[in-house]
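Annex B, item 7. Sequence and structure tokens for protein A, then protein B.
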Amino acid sequence: MGSAEQGRQEERAGDILLPRGIGARILSALASAVLRSQRAHDEESWQHGCRRGYEDGWKKGNHAGYTLGLEKGLEKGQEVGALVGHQQGLSEGIEAGKRIIELRPGRAVQAQGPQVDHNLFANWRFPITPEVEREIRDRVAEHLSGQEPTDDQWKMIFSRDPSTCIVAGAGSGKSTTMVLRLLVLHKYLGIPKERIAVVTFTRESRKDFRRKLAEVFALWGVTLTEEVTGRIVRTFHSRILDFIRCSQPHAKVTAFEFFSISNTEDEEGNEVENALDIRLTTEQLDLMNAAYQHVYETNETFQGLIAQLVRASAKPLPLSPNSAEARKRVGRILDCSKRDEELTDAVDRLWRAAGAWPIEGIEAGPFPVTLKGLTFFANGYCEELKAYVILGVGSNDRKLCLQSMPWMKLTGATTMKKTLFQVYCDKGILFLDNYAEGVATLDALRGYVRKCPKFEYELEGELGEAPVMQAFHSTASFLENLGLDVTDAVRNMSFTQKSTDAIFFHALAIFWPAFNDYLASQSPPIFTFNKMFEMFGERGAANLEQLPDEIFMPMLHLLVDEFQDCGANTISWLRAVFREARHRGLSVTTDTAVYPASLMAVGDDWQSIYGWRGSSPKFFENFESYFPSPSTTHVLMKENYRSQQMVIDAAESLVQSITTNKDKHGIAAHPKVKDLAFPVQVLDRDDNQLADLVEQHFDKGQTVLVLYRKNDTKKEVRIKLSSILAKARKLKRASSIKLLTYHGSKGLEADAVLLVGDCAQMSTSPHRNMAYEQARLGEPGDPAPYDTAQGQETLRLAYVAITRAKRHCYWFVELAKPAKGGLVSALARVRFQHPYFEDLRNR
């Protein structure tokens, strides 16, 4: 309240308060009132005086009241104002105090720069709005009625994050889902077809995906020609070719792996049949042999190492009867002795027919040799080297068999014979396996230097001997697939003092860089795919910097199928490409949005079965650590549209103990099989019963897969199935019955699947363990990380084989034997107390 107003109120209340001076005036007024009532005064003067007195009195009273009111009002106002002000100030002070930090002297903090952003992708999102979602769902229901995606599949299709990791279990229907994802990117978000890429591993899977892509896009009115789908869907290998050709002055630079396929520029000429196949063709071997001869002639150290390997191969060290290799064969020494005369004669005739026998300096036999009281035969004797000569079988005759024993291949028989001579022969022995190079081998043994010898060598842990060029190639490829440099990897290995593998790897470390140089010197230049990935991977980041933007743009939005099959070299390349794309700020700009790079990885760690060639499920299991992103969508697709539930449960029971994702479990979803309940039947090996089952299912109009672990099994089974296979061909249903290895069945399916043989780990490998440790693919402290990984892969391989079945799965097995040396057996992991396995063996 203001002071003047308080004063006026004090004035109006003056007759009550009676302050000083006011009482006299009141008495005067009373006296005047009495005089007026008695008319005892001059009217005019009285009236004038009254008015003047009233005016003066009002003014003086007003002034006095104002002054008094001001004093009292100020005093009272200060009291009330102080209280209100205190309360308001307290409230506002508390709120202000929350926002104000009192600055006090503190400890000195050293200035630091900003954090480094190690993400391979920018912080952005695909603008897939709820309206867009509704429209897509409506159109899918219209065009793909009955095939609408599940909730998990929709989550994949509508992923908004720059990186997405999809765990798509066996039979999860991922192909259509991937196509719908591409449809969203192109049709609804406007990303050009030229900026969308899909990577597959085989030509067959590429062909199937291209067909489905064109079919689904057509339903939305988008026409994709074969040329367009061919540019969208490619293999890793054809894409890295773009990088190498862009970097080289010669446009026709080619890949070593394509050397025998095509040197033309057609689209199929840029695709290998199967990127996981590392076998060599004749043309490729010719290149390797030319480089081999050049290094042999120009490098004395290499020449000496090869001589040592030849001696180790041709004059093998004695074997103990208790060694693992000997124990597998010495028990059959009697059978080997009975057939050895026929074997010796058959091999002798092959060498003579090839013009490679007899060899100068070797007296031709046969010469009888006694091993453990039994008679065997040597093909010849070399006086200069004081050694018996045993001839082997050339690489072109590996499928030949003994005439009296059609099931016994000459290679298997000669391998057993070699082992028995190593164990029981106390005289010098030479083994010549390659009759085309027998003379060169003998020259190397004598110390003569004319032509580099071709010979076979068996690395410890491998499943058999291989021509030295094949051994060099497969070993180097394995190391490079792990992301290792061959020379560096060998330098970091260690072997026992008497190990001939140390000699092999020393020779490999010299040969492999020289081989790559030899290829690069050709006109036009040739490179291995691994060399290309290395050149443009993380170790070759400087090479990527020299490439134009346009080489990166087709891969800016990438979808990788079968991601679990990637090796470290392809992972390194992808990481380097996305890092460089982000560094350059590359993006796709449409009329409505800007789209930086993105990656969608689709795979199944339970179907990772190519560890022997360098792939590992760790890249998929730890996806975010290898492809860091501000945000990543994870999807687990559980529905299985192939198999009935018991097949799913049986297969999963073998891999549950090694899984990193405990929530992973397949659910039968196909309406035709989801209510079926046929357990996986385990039976004794009986090829007659197997043939009967194949025919029963074939006659019902069903498809059949017969799968085997070892190639030797195929011939035995095919003989039993000959009549039904002929029947299938006659009825033009040959494709209804297929015989494949467990590995070869990946990606296929059938109503009935018949497995032949246990899925067991076959060996351990010292050099691969050392390579795995260098590549950091094992668990810390594991002394044998590759062996551990292979044991797990054995179980995953059994999972793959079983999950090919839609309805029925039969597993024919030999008499169970204890696993040796800790080797893993899938059959040993079967628990028959569960209803999804049924034991029908005779025990």
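Protein B:
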Amino acid sequence: MTVRIELLLVLIPLHVLLTSAQSPDAVYLQALKDNWQNTPPNWVGSDPCEDKWDGITCTDSRVTSITLSSINLIGELSGDIAQLTELQTLDLSYNKGLTGSLTPDIGSLRKLSTLIMVGCGFNGPLPETLGSLAQLGLLSLNSNGFSGPIPASIGNLTKLYWLDLADNKLSGPIPVSDGTSPGLDLLVNTKHFHFGKNNLSGEIPAQLFSSEMTLKHVLFEDNQFSGTIPSTLGLVQTLEVLRLDRNSLSGNVPSNIKNLTLINQLFLANNKLNGTMPDLTGMTILNYLDMSNNSFEESKFPEWLSSLQSLTTLIMEDTKLQGEVPVDFFNIPQIQTVVLRNNQLNGTLDFGAAYSDHLQLFDMTKNMITAFTQRSRYTTDLILIDNPICTESGPTASYCHPPTESNSSYSTPPNNCIPSMTCISGQVLSPNCKCSYPYSGTLSFRAPSFSDLGNSTIYTSLQSSMMVSFESNQLPVDSVSLSQPTKNSNDYLVVTLNVFPSGDERFNRSGILRIGFVLSNQTYKPPHPFGPYFFLGNNYDFFSDASKGKHKSVSVGLIVGVSMGACVLVILLVIAGLYAFRQKGKAERAIKKNSPFASWDPDKGIGGCPQLKGARSFTFEELKTCTNNFAATSNIGSGGYGMVFRGSLPDGQLVAIKRAQQGSNQGSLEFKTEIELLSRVHHKNVVSLVGFCFDAGEQMLVYEYIVNGTLKDSLSGRSGIKLDWMRRLKIILGAAKGLQYLHDLADPPIIHRDVKTTNILLDERLNAKVADFGLSKPLGDTVQTHVTTQVKGTMGYMDPEYYMTQQLTEKSDVYSFGIVMLELITARKPIENGKYIVRVVEEAMDKEKDYYNLREVLDPIIGLSTELKGLERFVNVALRCVEETGNRRPKMSEVVKEIENVMELAGINPNAESASTSESYEGKSKGKDHPYLNDSLFAVSGDHLFSNLESK
């Protein structure tokens, strides 16, 4: 009896000690687990943080993230979730077995920034307490069975970026504020309103929209809205996709809708709209237009349709169109599908001599066409059924019968390999000809801008972009395949997706959870033609760790019971030593963090320690982790400075990490220059420095990752992005504003010294960002006019006055910028075949002729198929920038104003937000070159700088 009492006296304090050491959230996670079936097998042990439960992320022993997609969870979400007060991310997507209502207790999660429950079985009303989640940025509850009204309290979520409530059973009106209660009109920072496929009703409130809003997507399709389209919608000039189709809207379409010049897709079909058909002149980047099945007044075929030069799809069935289809309409360069069924179009149908090569379908069923002029070989599916011409025999007879159903199926082909095996049951052959168990699901694109479902190039770009995203996030993916593209009743493009594992024939749970999260939280961004999307994942039944998890759950209890007595004394003796060691390590790390340049050696000729303003210091281990140990798959290139890696920080931010070659003094100088300058410059047109690493003998710079590469890549065609005149003007304006900021607003002012097209980067919306400050020079308080310095720069862009005098001024950047302007319109290298770009332009110029007679030197991509308004003024500005002497060149502030004037001449609002890459994205280059590299930089000096440069 005495022995038992003594043993209890030892075990009781040990139990208290162990319990107090575990995560305070453990008991609440255990309660959630008790409500669910099919939780991960490694959800055993007393501490989810220390035991690293799948799908659980902790910070300082507190649960901050729960991501559990596609693992067949069954049960309800209990109110215990409210006790996880540090939770920031909750993703339970693709678990159809999760049912019941969304607990109101969820409003207690005041730090929650991401709430995703896509494709589950939740039902009942949405709780008003959602409006208490003040930090929420992403709210996706689509594809469930939620019913009742949209909570007005959601209007309190001022940080909300993404709001997706589509494909539920929500009803009632859209709530707006009334002075005492909030409404969705207060969400001025929200970019996405996705409310399609619900039972919402009433009028769309005029108050919902204002010029303060920054919406990109308004998707209200397939509801029960009535009344008119509010004219306030025309004030939201950031809109890119607008779907109001499949409702009961009536009245006139507001005339100011044409002010939405960034619109790519516009769906107004299947309503009761009447009055005159709206004039959409000015929507120059509109790709997809559907106004079918409305009650518009009878009108001739609109002339403004021919001005929509970006149009790929036009659907105007049953819209009371009359007259002939003009020949000019068939010259729209990218047009693919035209459906004009059930109208009163008459006369002769004439496609002209050179109709678009992309035209696949022209459906004129039930019109009054009497003749067809065929000037060239015609391969398009032309349908003339129920037209007078079909009563006659002749060559047009083939167009008067239902066309043979075209095969629009697509399936990813093998990737340069020959399938040579038959997979066992459950396995699928990957594009790399490997049998494995893929993670599958469907991608649904809500507003695709193309209609040719059999276009393999489009799907290839989708596959490539997905692999880039998966690799960027270090996911265990070998390849992806797409198949069975179809259009559903809502005109969504639905594609089957298979994701194949790398290194093994199965995914483990961690891999599935991470892939599911990338697809559910919109980390993956598809190329423009596909538009907004959502993914519905299937349950994954082939986990590689299933048997291991079961074994672990059995053995842990046995091991704990047998080993407890033996470990008691050891734990009690060791715990004090561990605590002291941990505290010592914390102290050392704190000292190192507060003084990251303690080991900086000024005796190497690189000056004193960098002087920083707010740049984040990373340890070598942190960057090693986010690049998967600087793996080859993360390497995106190399240059004279060193290697560049793509990485993903713990918060999901993509970064480019420039890792210097060890022992390079030149690298140290560039490192110091860039880190000092970029840490204190903050402008939307200057690349951002996220942080640096000066640890373990390493020198690394961490930048924001710029997805669309350099301006040079786009001008050369390597990026797959085609730049028309409008986009080029917006890009060059952004670059000019970046340089103006450096010259006029940075403190102290900065001379870039290496302005060129490879140092101008393009983000996902084609905004220009000035980059690479390795050669830059600040103008200190005592030196406000120039710096005397060794001549450095890039051949072809360098200011000859700077080279001759070694006097570096802001006008040296202006000269380089003038070369960039000329390169922008010609797509020629500054020095090509021994000829200097300035001389080439000047020799071709004739100011008495249109476009200064520069047709032969202009980039064929912009061409002269559309009017290049303002070109002459643009050239004048560029040539002023490259004057021989700096005092004759304009300041960058003047250049900015001149470019803005050119844009106004071209009918472009210089203050409008840039359109997305969307407009003509054709897939990114998969090469190793990267905008953060400095491969083409020549630190030149001496007598040979202009040896091959023809003088002007």
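Comment on protein B: Confidence is low (pLDDT under 50) at residues 1-20, 546-563, 587-595, 915-952.
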